[in-house]
Write a structure and sequence with these properties.
alpha+beta; 2 domains; five-stranded antiparallel sheet; Lipoprotein; signal
Length: about 260
Amino acid sequence: MRTGKLLGRGAAAALCVALVSGCNLLPTNDGGASASPGASPAAVAGGGGSSGTTAPLGKAPVRKATIDGWKVYTDPDRVLSFEIPADWVVQRQVKASQPSDNGLHLDIRDSSGKLAAQLHTRLKLPKATCSAGGVTELRVLLSEPAKVPAVASADTIEPVFVYRTLLGYKYFGSYGLTDKPAGNGFQACTVENTVNGPKPVGVYSFGTAVRHGTPAPGEKTGLLDKYGLIAEAERFITTERFKTVQQVIMTLQIAGDAKA
């Protein structure tokens, strides 16, 4: 098991205040995070308590971390939870970065304050469109089965954790959970990192870009990784940081599992 580096509550809160303005730091089940000064009560209320293990009807039981030195984040309604290293933090987005039907929107930051992943639920995405000139080279650099809840349909696949790139003026890469195939496996207009989940979460995303194509020069690229050579992307997915982010995402659990 991977061992994370432990930091106390004060250190985690200090990190958040120092690196992120208005950070809305959320508590975890072990009490390992505390609220930043001035955080709203709604933002602070989200960790799920650690007193007892019997959950109210319809809610997931409070879980313990399965990885040494890690902690567990549980949302206020105890619908979903995941594990993070002890010195990482979870923040609720003040303004949702993706369209949703009153969904949950979280930023997950590493020990340096860098954004490692985002989690969104109840997404309401517009239908993806593709023109003939929009098709470009697709590379699937990593695809591993993910044991996460999903509601199957005619146009979905079994959920996987993927790292994919599309070729524009650079190679643009993203990672996350998906049950959506991209293009024909070799070419695509866009890739989508979403899963059709059970009713409590609806369509959800846990990764970097929810859906992306190839930005034009000068256009904002958001959370997309950018590479001049595909070999740079291949090296990135072998790094310890990427492996840690993947492990965080793969620990996701959702109450109610796969019944819509």
